[in-house]
Amino acid sequence: MIQLNGKCKEKFLEWYWNEWFDDKERNYYEEKEIAVKALYTTDTVFLNALIIEFFDSKNIFIEVSGIFYQGFEPEFNYNIQEKGTLNGINGEVFNSRQEATIQAIKKANEIYNERFK
């Protein structure tokens, strides 16, 4: 979970615990830290999807898209849009969807930490 830090990471872990564990599971794990440790062994694609869901719940929307030209390698970029704003933040161009996603999450992390100091 290298992409998240500060208040954003703290709130993500809290959201994950509350959103993905029911009362029975919470009783099974004596401390949420034990359950959260599973995130560190989770597949990156699944973890990124969870993080994007978290940002959705905070009205920070990440969109990753590809640009394909015939005969050229595909390029990917991202856009971050906040609810109630007209302009999004556009990221640079990346060689893979995964890299664009990771960079978008890092940028959304910065936005979150700035907004909720």
Report what the structure shows.
The protein is of the alpha+beta class and 117 residues long. Helix content is 50%, strand content 15%. The protein has five helices and three strands; from the N terminus they run H-H-H-H-E-E-E-H. It is globular and about 55 Å long. The model has no long low-confidence stretch (mean pLDDT 84).
Q: Which characteristics define this entry?
A:
alpha+beta; globular; 117 residues; three-stranded antiparallel sheet; 15% strand
Could you list the spans in which at least 5 consecutive residues all have pLDDT below 50?
Answer: none
Average pLDDT taken over every residue = 84
The Cα radius of gyration reads 16 Å
- Structural class of the secondary elements? alpha+beta
**Percent of residues in helical segments?**
40-55%
How are the strands of the largest sheet arranged?
1-2-3
Overall geometry comes to: globular
Strand content: 15-25%
Number of helices: 5
Oligomer: single chain
